[in-house]
Design a protein that fits this description.
- InterPro entries: Pyridox_Oxase (IPR000659), Pyridox_Oxase_CS (IPR019740), Pyridox_Oxase_N (IPR011576), Pyridoxamine_oxidase_dimer_C (IPR019576), Split_barrel_FMN-bd (IPR012349).
- The protein is an alpha+beta fold.
- Helix content is 28%, strand content 31%.
- The protein is built from 6 helices and 10 strands; from the N terminus they run H-H-E-E-E-E-H-E-E-H-H-H-E-E-E-E.
- Strands 1, 2, 3, 4, 5, 6, 7, 8, 9 and 10 form a 10-stranded antiparallel sheet that branches.
- Strand 5 and strand 6 form a beta hairpin.
- Helix 5 (127-135) packs across helix 6.
- The radius of gyration is 21 Å and the shape is elongated.
- Bound molecules: flavin mononucleotide.
- Flavin mononucleotide (FMN) binds at residues 41, 44, 57, 59-62, 73-76, 79-81, 138-139.
């Protein structure tokens, strides 16, 4: 009895969707992950980019805001990821919350956040983080750690009583066209429900493809 009950609790069916659009559904899962003590950094997400010739690269960044417009993160505008995003403004994000056996996959197009928003966020960070962002030419080779320490020391004294100007560092927003919710199951028949923006000619049939809210459709994928 107990095993069967636990099994049902883990299932993620279409009836279990809190929302018929993915941003509201993301909020429910993200809040659960944030409130789960064994999830250390619920906002850590793997960001995949690709160069113009299609060579992929991936790294973790932190989600710093989300809503119907998209998913935001901040980084150095001269980093490898930034260079790839400038020449190929498409990205994929993946969250994995192990304790909940859940993953969310987001795909979309990328744009820079307005400079004013990057300024505001940059200056809201602790001074040490602002100095850290200025001290590092992210993704470039250096001879040793002492290069960073020296730069940090110099900047700390230079800006001890002044506002630190934002370096070539700021935000991006991933504007999603596809968001998949994956719920792992002990029997390996995992649940996958993907929301996506439909093609112009596509009509939901209520069987394979379902009509969602706010222009989204959703479908169940084989695990
Ligand atoms: C959990 C975690 C969170 C991170 N968050 C960020 C972030 O928000 N922004 C960032 O630029 N780098 C972040 N990093 C560092 C990146 O993973 C990466 O080392 C750096 O951005 C350089 O990537 P690139 O050379 O591909 O541009 C984070 C690393 C980890 C492990």
């Amino acid at each position: 009895m107990r095993a069967a009950y636990r099994g049902r609790q883990e299932l993620f069916t279409e009836a279990d969707l809190a929302c018929k659009e993915p941003i509201g559904q993301f909020k429910v899962w993200f809040d659960e992950a944030r409130n789960e003590p064994s999830v250390m950094e619920a906002n850590a997400m793997c960001l995949a980019t690709a160069s113009k010739d299609g060579t992929p690269s991936a790294r973790y960044v932190l989600l710093k805001g989300y809503g119907p417009d998209g998913f935001k993160f901040f980084t150095n505008y001269e980093s490898r990821k930034a260079k790839e995003l400038e020449e190929n403004p498409k990205a994929a994000l993946t969250f994995y919350w192990e304790a909940l056996r859940r993953s969310v996959r987001i795909e979309g197009t990328v744009a820079r956040l307005p400079a004013a928003e990057s300024d505001e966020y940059f200056h809201s960070r602790p001074k040490a983080s602002q100095i850290g962002a200025c001290a590092s030419n992210q993704s470039t080779p250096i001879t040793g750690r002492e290069v960073l320490s020296a730069q940090e020391k110099y900047l700390a004294s230079e800006y001890s009583d002044k506002e630190i100007p934002r370096p070539n560092w700021g935000g991006y927003i991933v504007v999603p066209h596809s968001i998949e919710f994956w719920q792992g199951q002990s029997d390996r028949l995992h649940d996958r429900i993907r929301f996506r923006l439909p093609q112009e000619t596509e009509k939901p049939d209520g069987k394979l493809l379902h009509e969602g809210d706010n222009g989204w459709v959703y479908e169940r994928l084989s695990p």
